[in-house]
Every structure is written in structure tokens, then in C-alpha cells.
Predict the structure of Chemosensory protein.
Amino acid sequence: MYDNIDIEQILRTQRLLKRYVDCLKGIPNTCTKEGLKLKELLPDALLHNCKECSDNQKKGITRVSIYLMNCHPKWWSDLEKIHDPQGSYKASYQDTLKAQGASTPKETKCYH
């Protein structure tokens, strides 16, 4: 699942991106079918550093994470507070993002 989702289209469409973020924040009536599945899989992906993710899924997660951190830091912060309140996974995924070439805010194209 998620291997064929057009990540860039989601990032370019703020309404759609916000809907995914709101779904992951637990806001009622915001989840698409894919959003519900993502919300279900996210805890295990965080716990096991995306061990079960395909390479394409890892690339997508990296792209979305970098985009949210650099273009929508408030949304990213909100998601961290919900899905990593103790900061248990933060060092791990930050190392992973750096290893995969995480860009700086100046290098990230923000669509909106």
C-alpha cells in the first residue's frame, strides 16, 4: 500500500495535505481510506524505524517529513506531540532523514 500514491500531488494540494495531517491528529471525519490505514500503521512504523516499509514508502515518508518540517513546522510539531510525545523516536528518525539527504528549509520547495 502507498507505493502508487502521488506524494507530490498531495504536497501541492494544501487541502488534501491538511486532511491527512488532521487525520493523523485524530480530528474526526477527516480521514480518507488511505489516511485511516496510515494512521493505523504509523505507530509500528515509528517503533520499528519503518522496518516493514518498502524503499518507495521510505522515500515517500522522508519526502513528506522533510516537507512538513520545513514548510509546515506547526503541523509537524503537532504530529510530534501526538505520535512521539516523549521524543522517543525523534533521534532515530532525524538520523534516518539526515542519512537520506534531508534538505534544509532553503532547499525545500514549499508549494503554499
The chain has a mean pLDDT of 87. Residues 7-106 form a domain with the Antennal chemosensory protein a6 fold (CATH 1.10.2080.10). Residues 55-71 form the longest helix (17 residues).
